[in-house]
């Protein structure tokens, strides 16, 4: 399983780069886990992050399917 981390306001070039890596992983029959990271004031505008996530998943639909629906639960803290 490969993991890709996005931010709500990811630069367009970085977004395309991460999208291409996700496509490459899916074409190699790997699973891709997409995490959405919020920092500081981004927590006040979570709707922007979920728009980014929905757009990312929509662009990957040709290459795979989602195992679970998008959820708004917080990620587990890093230790």
Describe this entry's structure for a reader.
The chain is of the alpha+beta class and 79 residues long. It has two helices and two strands. Strands 1-2 form a two-stranded parallel sheet. The longest helix has 16 residues, at 12-27.
How are the strands ordered across the major sheet? 1-2
Q: What oligomerization state is this entry in?
A: single chain
Question: How do the SSEs run, as a string of H and E?
Answer: EHEH
Helix content: 25-40%
Integer average pLDDT: 87
- Measured on Cα atoms, how large is the radius of gyration? 13 Å
Which strand-content bin applies to the residues?
5-15%
Total helical elements: 2
| Secondary structure tally: strands | 2
Low-confidence sequence ranges: none
Helix and strand composition category: alpha+beta
User: How far apart are the first and last residues' alpha carbons, in Å?
Assistant: 20 Å
The largest pleated sheet is described as: 2 strands, parallel
Large-scale geometry: globular
Topology, pairings included?
Layout: E1 2-6, H1 12-27, E2 32-36, H2 46-60
Parallel strand pairs: 1-2
What distinguishing features does this structure have?
alpha+beta, 79 residues, two-stranded parallel sheet, globular, 2 strands
What can be said about this structure in brief?
By secondary structure, the protein is α+β, with helices and mostly antiparallel strands. It has helices at residues 12-27, 46-60, and strands spanning 2-6, 32-36.
């Amino acid at each position: 399983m490969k993991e890709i981390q996005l931010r709500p306001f990811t630069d367009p070039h970085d977004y395309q780069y991460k999208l291409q890596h996700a496509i490459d992983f899916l074409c190699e029959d790997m699973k891709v886990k997409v995490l959405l990271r919020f920092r500081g004031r981004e927590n006040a505008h979570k709707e922007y992050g979920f728009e980014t996530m929905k757009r990312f998943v929509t662009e990957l639909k040709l290459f795979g399917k989602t195992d679970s629906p998008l959820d708004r639960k917080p990620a587990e803290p890093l230790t």
